[in-house]
Amino acid sequence: MDFRIYLLRRLLLMIPTFLGITIINFAFIQLAPGGPVEAYISKIRYSSGGSVDGGEGAHSDAGGGSGAKAAVTKEVIEELNKRYGFDKPVHVRYFTWLKNTLTFEFGYSHTFGKPVMEVIKSKFPVSVRFGVAGFLITYMVCIPLGILKAVKDGTAFDTASSVIVFLLYSVPYYMLGILLIHVFAGGQYFDWFPLGGVRSLDSENLPLWARIKDQVWHMVLPLTCFVVNSFATLTILMKNSIIEEVKRDYVRTARAKGLSQGAAILRHAFRNALVPLATGIGGLIAVFFTSNLLIETIFNLDGFGKLFYDATLQRDYPVLMAQVVIGAMLGLVAQLLSDVAYVMVDPRINYSKT
Questions:
Q1: How far apart are the C-alpha atoms of 218 and 342, rounded to whole Å?
Q2: The model scores a pTM over 0.90
């Protein structure tokens, strides 16, 4: 089977997969207890004024305490259900949401008081910046390091580098973040990096090159936490894959013709050794681009991780479903990229049986 036909099949298969992901998540989110209606009722009951407003009319009580509880009548609950769309069956709500989602209309955020797309756009640059940088740095470091470890297998360099990467791997990323801030940004030992954020307060007044330098400087410590856990896995995977390829006959033949071990690896074994890394490229992309709540919290980064956490606490269903859509699309596209990368590094793949 031609790869283009296989690619078309995979693209078509993404449609029912996407629908399945959204149906399951929509059902769980909509049917879970403690939704926005219950949250709003609790707010009414514990407020002093006890009112329901927000652009669709208001119901208020005459005064405090018991009056607030009295305001939560059947009519108030029906109005809240209508406002949040819970007056319709769940399948009707899903198809209405799906129709709007196809035009990238995710609705209105209950928490942030603005359209969901505006909320997503405000968080998107932070996650994309760290996602792209983390992905590139991980592969640019791990591939050469894995090759070097394979060439120097069993030497002091191989042992020392393995100890370092596994030590870093064993340290939880949030503990590493706290340690990095304490040592390099807290001022107690060194004051080389900022404590958090993505830019300085006065960065808008700086020249272009100074602004770029300022943002890169802010990214160093959180980016270290983002990528450090991937180093050990990918480096050892690359090393073992190279060692496995070196044992094959075609590399031995190249060595017998006079090539050095390093030249034989780079010219012959390297491409085939990339196959295991290509299969995992999709998952790594998805992990980097969905961000991490703890790292964002430690370094005061306003990205997708914190947004998802806040939306979950506030039962902000439009924001939650928008993030489900983005996560599903990222995962599906990343898996497709894995297949494309797999073909690029190993053209011998036969798709007639897939």
A1: 35
A2: no
